[in-house]
Amino acid sequence: LVCLAQDFDFFYFVQQWPGAYCDTKQSCCYPKTGKPAADFGIHGLWPNYNDGSWPSNCDPDSVFDKSQISELQSSMDKYWPSLSCPSSNGFRFWSHEWEKHGTCAESELDQREYFETALKLKEKVNLLQFLKDADIVPDDGFYSLDSISEAIEKGTGFTPGIECNKDSARNSQLYQVYVCVDTSGFNLIKCPILPRSRCDSDIQFPKF
Ligand code: 5GP
Ligand code: 5GP
Ligand code: 5GP
Q1: CB atoms within 10 A of CB 100
Q2: What are the TM regions of this chain, as residue ranges (predicted)?
């Protein structure tokens, strides 16, 4: 009896706002390809269980193989940049995401499909546009958490998960947005459970 192909219930597709990743005490480093666009970037596509727990590092034998994503790399550089320090070219971040999360969805998606699926979701879930349509723009202003949540719901059809962090002045700010996706990776669904948000009722949308 082997414990293989651990199942999961749904994905969180998680995007990060670079202004909030950078605007904290820990700070950030731009990738070698230069300062990323002022847009949300992909953090990851994370298999999850309906009770809020999740599997991780499911297959130590499936190491990240960059040759499988060579055709996706220019899109990955653009839409999935790594902002951690020291400055890197993305491979470390992508490899971490594949090994920690992607390997738990191998029953549904191989490595190339996993990254391709995330890139397609990025196109579909255009957060910056959804927010702009509600006059919510990264201008260092404060917006109600509800107005941000409603603007995204208008765009996707479902209530998102919103995670905040704190800038160096301890202001609560928009950091990550979670939308839920079925196990095929194609269809947005109503979130079975929302991640815990840690946001104040009014949050800053920092410039990047
Ligand atoms: P943190 O503890 O900073 O919120 O998250 C640390 C890491 O745990 C994240 O980068 C991600 O890999 C994982 N993680 C956090 N929350 C969730 C979640 O709700 N679902 C899944 N699948 N992974 C999560
Ligand atoms: P905590 O006890 O603070 O919820 O979690 C401690 C650590 O375990 C954190 O790094 C958190 O990201 C991780 N963690 C919490 N819940 C889960 C889970 O359901 N699955 C996995 N793989 N890690 C988790
Ligand atoms: P998680 O475990 O939460 O899925 O991913 C977080 C890990 O990815 C951390 O070890 C972090 O240092 C690394 N990482 C590299 N680049 C980035 C980035 O741009 N944003 C975030 N949130 N984590 C990054």
Answers
A1: 16
A2: none
Please check whether residue 167 is in contact with residue 206, taking contact to mean a CB–CB distance below 8 angstroms.
yes
Measured in degrees and rounded to the nearest 5, phi and psi for residue 87 equal -50, 135
Q: Please identify, by atom number, the ligand 1 atom nearest to the C-alpha of residue 52.
A: 19
Strand ranges in the chain using DSSP code E only, listed in sequence order: 10-16, 41-48, 142-144, 161-166, 172-181, 188-189, 202-204
Distance separating alpha carbons of residues 18 and 208, to the nearest angstrom: 7
Nearest CA-CA partner of 51 in 172, 191, 198, 203: 191
- Nearest ligand 1 atom, CA 55: 22
Query: pLDDT tens for residues 118-127?
Result: 999 999 999 9
Whole-angstrom distance, CA of residue 149 vs CA of residue 24: 22
Question: What global pTM score does this model have?
Answer: 0.94
Mutate which of 16, 46, 101, 165 for ligand 1 pocket (most atoms within 8 A of beta carbon): 46
- Rounded to an integer, the average pLDDT of 29-41 is 95
For a substitution probing ligand 2, which of 56, 96, 101 has the most ligand atoms within 8 Å of its CB? 56
